[in-house]
């Protein structure tokens, strides 16, 4: 049974009411995105509120919106935000991305998303977990995500997305159709040289050569965290 909470150095994530729990790859996304100069940040599909709170910790002045379609998760995220040091700068919006688009929000300097991705796998018996992990017709699609980001991303802004490599290839095609292009890619693996687990790709409106960087979670011959991983998560993980 998963823990009902995850404690970081400066905030705690209660996750009992959320289908998808705190995971390592999402923490890497929150720590690796270039957020320090952004004034407006959006977390799409915030779940527990993890990425929104990591963004708030890293950028002491940004205003952050966190949108979540699943009502229980939205309530959990709102509670986590309320219990954090940054409740005055983070707003949880319960509803769909389409509903947010209808309000014509001001442009965002950075958009974060850890989207649903198991497009070809069997459906989960849990409806909430299915919504969190599958690109179902009644949930967020890659096309909708790309089109929203292209429309509401400020000039010079970035969209940072976390996906497994095959799904990232699919999303990159959708993003290009919407006028967003991969610019930087972090390739996450368990160990140096092992099969990539996830790609964290940063998109912008300008097409250019993609800068690619590997990141191994563990050292090659042990379960110890790699020096690069430890440096990236040092401001968040209690273990460091």
UniProtKB/TrEMBL annotation:
| Catalytic activity annotation | adenosine(37) in tRNA1(Val) + S-adenosyl-L-methionine = N(6)-methyladenosine(37) in tRNA1(Val) + S-adenosyl-L-homocysteine + H(+)
Q: What class of enzyme is it?
A: transferase
Q: Where does the sequence pass through the membrane?
A: none
**What does the entry give for GO biological process?**
methylation; tRNA processing
Q: What is its EC number?
A: 2.1.1.223
Q: Where is the Methyltransferase small domain?
A: 37-128
What Pfam families does UniProt report for this protein, alphabetically? MTS (PF05175)
| Compartment annotation | Cytoplasm
- For whether the record's keyword set contains Transferase, the answer is yes
**What functional role does this protein have?**
Specifically methylates the adenine in position 37 of tRNA(1)(Val) (anticodon cmo5UAC).
Q: Which family does it belong to?
A: Belongs to the methyltransferase superfamily. tRNA (adenine-N(6)-)-methyltransferase family.
Q: What is this protein called?
A: tRNA1(Val) (adenine(37)-N6)-methyltransferase
